[in-house]
Amino acid sequence: MTMPVANQPRRRGACPGVLAPMQVGDGFLLRVRVPAGVLPADHARGIAELGDRYGNGLIDLSQRGTLQLRGIAADGLEPVTEALRGMGYVSGDAASEAVRNVLCSPTAGLDLKAAMDVRAVAHTLDARLAEDAELHRLPPKFGWLVCGGGIGHLANSSTDVRFDAVDAERFRVSLGGTLAKAVPLGLCRVDDVADVVSALGRAFLELRAELPEPPRRMAGLVAAIEIEEIGARLAPSISPLPPGERIKVRGTHLMDFFGDAEPPHPTLLPGGEKEQAPVMVTAFPFGRLTATTLAALAAACAEIRITPWRALILVAPSADAERIAEAHGAILSHTDRRLKLTACSGAGGCDVGTTDTHATALAIADRAGPLLDPVRMVHVSGCAKGCAHPAIADVTLTARDGVYDVALNAKPGDASPYTGLSPADAVARVADLLTEESTGA
Asked: What 3-state class would DSSP assign to 421?
């Protein structure tokens, strides 16, 4: 069989922000960076109102813990920007906003099992990135992570620089990856985090400039030079890890992270472990909800935490919060098969998409039913770029010109033996493949 040429993704460049809106298929997309992921209920209601008044009423939850307002009209950009500025979510300019990519433990301050409440540290890091003009030259996707441990651990979130708490006063600093894969650099005190951020950002920019092909992410720099060369530029803010010792990051779900196995992803949905404080966790298919839903949830709690798992944590939920969430189509059980589905915006939401990716994914869940139980992920991608999940999934559908290519254990755009399938035929093909897998045929 002759394999088709892999689809070529379209590259957009910089990531969107409030001051750098991106034109997509359904209007302008604005990404709102919320410091520490803590969204007061009144701010959530305000953002919901903006989405309804100036956009198409759709809001996406990103894997970087941000909110994305969709379908904003050109004449709505100024009033939306000013309203968000009044809430404190807009930087001085687009350059300072673009580098504020800080991911924070969503259960910080809620979980008594965590080593540290890292909200203040995340705010400090966010402010330093915005204020330090030298750091505005960092690539727009360059990310930072602050994790205090506990039930909401960010073990599987991959980023450029990690600060993982080892106790109430120190962080383990590591570069380029998840908790298990990032390369350890050393230890730093809480009070030194902002200075370490500035020094690390400068070290990255200076060292990458010395290479023939400057890497755009920290993992590329670490692969190209010795980690000691980076660490030397941070002394004395960074102290070395004790030789031969294993420094543990305290957390409910964590094993000794110097082991071979990767720590398991935390289960934050009902049925898994619960935080210490009264909370309710809600997820949504494909991380998408409506402005009406956000407003309803905000009215049923005191505060909302944005997670990188495309779920929201409602803090101090009202007695009827679960009923309200369910009425708005929220996922309230960790066994809901829709959690296994990932899809990008597709036709209508992206000018590259040619299929209704969400409808296709939901049709697979309806058709396959229990066959999805042993599957980790089914990804429906509107093109080969794979914005929603560029990595390998158990089942991947890649759209092109209104049809799908279907592949097992593949990334979007990988060669596939099942090509040119209509959406209905692709759904049937996936169900057949899952049946064959389950029966060993």
From this structure: strand
**E strand intervals along 291-385:** 303-306, 311-315, 341-343, 378-381
Is residue 145 within 8 A of residue 161, CB to CB? The reply is yes
d(CA 298, CA 52): 15
Distance of CA 138 to the CA centre of its chain: 19
Strand order from edge to edge, sheet including 311-315? 38-40, 303-306, 311-315, 279-283
Residue 127 burial (C-beta neighbours within 10 Å; 0-12, 13-18, 19+)? middle
- d(CA 48, CA 262) in angstroms, rounded, equals 37
For the entire predicted model, the pTM comes to 0.88
Buried b (16+ CB within 10 A) or exposed e, 41-56: bebbbbbbebbbebbb
Cβ atoms 85, 75 nearer than 8 A: no
φ, ψ at 58 (rounded to 5°): -105, 140
- Domain spans in the chain, listed from the N-terminal domain onward: 14-88+283-331, 107-231, 338-439
Per the CB < 8 A criterion, the answer to whether 326 and 377 are in contact is: no
- 341 close to 335: Cβ distance less than 8 angstroms: no
CATH architecture of 107-231: 2-Layer Sandwich (3.30)
Q: How many CB atoms lie within 10 A of CB 331?
A: 21
Residue type, 7: N
Of the candidate CATH numbers 3.40.1190.20, 3.40.470.10, 3.30.413.10, 1.10.10.10, the domain formed by 338-439 belongs to 3.30.413.10
Q: Identify the residue whose tokens are 């560029």.
A: 390
**Could you give the CA distance from residue 383 to residue 355 in angstroms, rounded to a whole number?**
9
Each residue's pLDDT tens digit, 358-415: 999 999 999 999 999 999 999 999 999 998 888 899 999 999 999 999 999 999 999 9
